[in-house]
Structure formats: structure tokens, C-alpha cells
Amino acid sequence: MTTPANPNDAALGASAAHAALAARLAPMAPTPGHELTLRVVPMPADSNANGDIFGGWIMAQVDIAGAILPARIARGRIATVAVNQFVFKQPVSVGDLLSFFARVERIGTTSITVNVEVYAERNPGELQVVKVTEANLTYVAIDAHGQPRPIPRD
Questions:
Q1: Separation CA 151–CA 139 (nearest Å)
Q2: Which of 46, 112, 132, 141 suits a disulfide with 90, CB 3.0-4.6 Å?
Q3: 8 A C-beta contact, residue 138 and residue 112
Q4: In this structure, what CATH number is given to the domain that contains residue 47?
């Protein structure tokens, strides 16, 4: 006859599993002040003839992830006006789990500059977390006619 499991044992097991996962993800530590804005897994249709993910696809995802914070701050419509820097540090593969972290660098009268860091989680059995991309983009707040408008300051 078996003894019923102690509910506390299950909680301890879940806690230990969570701690183990946190330790495995420790390398994915974005620069302080960054906020997770997007997670996505690239699919085979996003790859080039070499099997790597198209750089343009990654750029589009960075633009989407980078726009989240400026849209909140501007409280309305924004447009990308500049890609100030874009560095591909590692190739991205089909099946990598990409995490995009953004931080506001500067708020001007009508524009907001954002830094975006992208990390890939790969090989779940022997988890690796690597920084694959970093970029700086500038967005401008625009009105209904597409003209620059001031960023709210309150």
C-alpha cells in the first residue's frame, strides 16, 4: 500500500523545478532597465537558402518589439524614423525562441529612441541562451495626418 503524496512535497518539487529553470536561463540577462516586449519562434518560411533566418525578418520583429514602449509613452500613433544601429551578433535558426527586450534611451520633443536586445534560447535538452541582435531605433509621435506631434509630458 502506498502513502498518499504530501501536497507540500509537490509544491517543493515545483519550486525546485522552477529554480532549476531559472538557473538555466540565467545567461539571458538583458542590460538593466530592459523590458520584455516580444517573444517569437521563427519558422521555416522565415529562413534563407542557407537555413538561417532572414536578417530582414529579424529587423521587422525588432521594429515591432521596439515600438511597444514608445507607443505607450506617446499615447498614440508612432512611426519608425531611423534605425540608428543594427548589429547581428549570431545567426538565428528555425525553432529558436527569441526574446526581445527594450529600453527607452531618450525622449525628445516628438521622438523616442529605444535600444532593443534580442536573445535566442536554443537546444532545449542542453539549453543555450545567446545574444543574437542589438539595435537602436528612433520613433516619432505622429498625428492623424502623419505629422509629428509633441510627446505628452504628464
A1: 11
A2: 132
A3: yes
A4: 3.10.129.10
pTM of the full structure: 0.82
Residue 93 maps to a domain: yes
Q: How many domains does the chain have?
A: 1
Question: Of 114, 108, 103, 113, whose CA–CA distance to 153 is shortest?
Answer: 108
Contacts of 85 (CB under 8 A, 6+ apart): 134, 135, 136
Q: Which three cell numbers stand for residue 42?
A: 521563427
The residue length of the chain stands at 154
> Quick one: CA torsion of 68, 70, 72, 78, rounded to 10 degrees?
-90
114 within 8 A of 45, measured Cβ to Cβ: no
How far, rounded to the nearest angstrom, does the alpha carbon of residue 41 sit from its chain's CA centroid?
11
- What 8-state DSSP symbol labels residue 57? H
| pLDDT range class, residue 135, cuts 50, 70, 90 | very high
Distance CA 30, CA 41 (A): 19
pLDDT digits (tens, 9 = 90+) for 84-126: 999 999 999 999 999 999 999 999 999 999 999 999 999 989 9
